[in-house]
Amino acid sequence: xxxxxxxxxxxxxxxxxxxxxxxxxxxxxxxxxxxTKLHKAVRAADANMASDRGSIxxxxxxxxxxxxxxxxxxxxxxxxxxxxxxxxxxLLFHLDLYRDRAKWDTSDLFRSAEAAE
Length: 117
Description:
Order of helices and strands: EEHHHH
Strand order of the largest sheet: 1-2
Number of helices: 4
Structural class: mainly alpha
């Protein structure tokens, strides 16, 4: 197994137990070698993800600037798009219910734009 063993004194050296050692338990921990290997891999993946997030962010910024994408609405859409169908349906059911109960104004915000056409 690639784990090291560490002994942890639960009660302290000066409290009861056999020959003043106190009660002890064995805690298994990842080895330093395996930890270092894992941490290097995670940092590399984080760097790649940061780059990917930057690329995605730039695509969204461009669409917002040039094609009138609403970034906040798209962010909510992306979250919903990642959900399983039944979870998304449940969330939207509750959201619609809460919107109704809040009595938010749901009238058309763009009536003047329609009149201009």
